[in-house]
Specification:
It is built from 4 helices and no strands. Helix 1 runs antiparallel to helix 4. By secondary structure, the protein is mainly alpha-helical. 70% of the residues lie in helices and 0% in strands. The chain is elongated and about 65 Å long.
């Protein structure tokens, strides 16, 4: 094991919090594109630069859960990691990335991207509180008050 459990869950909280802020940025940028505050080229270039770091952070967190033996958390994170890998590998050749400026307004792609961001936001929000719970349980696993029998008051 690399980290203790409280440190692992604190890191997962920081990681998930960072991705939550990133997803809020995605939603704001996509809604700015929808309202024509941004052009498609500018919006897609902003979003495409963050898709790979989001995948790497999620994959690294899943890997940490795997090597620490938290199988359930790793298995619960695996579908989202596989979905992000599928999304990244299914980009047609010639497109600039997942968010392509020439196709983002075609066939409801903007609505699809907004829906995917909202699903990711819900997933990460749910797991943020799950990691918070796991961190609290890991911190309380030991005796945090260090109570032992030598300090008992005799009557």
């Amino acid at each position: 094991m690399i980290f203790s459990d409280p440190l692992l869950f604190a890191f997962s909280l920081l990681n998930t919090g960072a991705v939550l802020f990133l997803l809020v940025y995605f939603v704001i940028t996509l809604s700015d594109l929808e309202c024509d505050y941004l052009n498609a080229q500018e919006c897609c270039s902003k979003l495409n630069q963050w898709t790979l770091p989001k995948l790497i952070s999620h994959g690294f967190l899943s890997f940490l859960f795997l090597i620490h033996g938290h199988w359930i958390l790793m298995l619960l994170n695996l579908p989202m990691a596989l979905w992000m890998v599928y999304e990244l590998t299914s980009v047609p050749s010639g497109n600039l990335g997942i968010y392509d400026p020439t196709e983002i307004h075609n066939r409801g792609q903007l609505k699809k991207h907004m829906r995917d961001c909202m699903i990711n936001l819900g997933h990460y929000l749910l797991f943020f509180f799950a990691y918070l719970y796991c961190m609290i349980v890991a911190l309380l696993k030991g005796d945090p008050l260090n109570r032992n029998d030598e300090f008992e008051v005799e009557t």
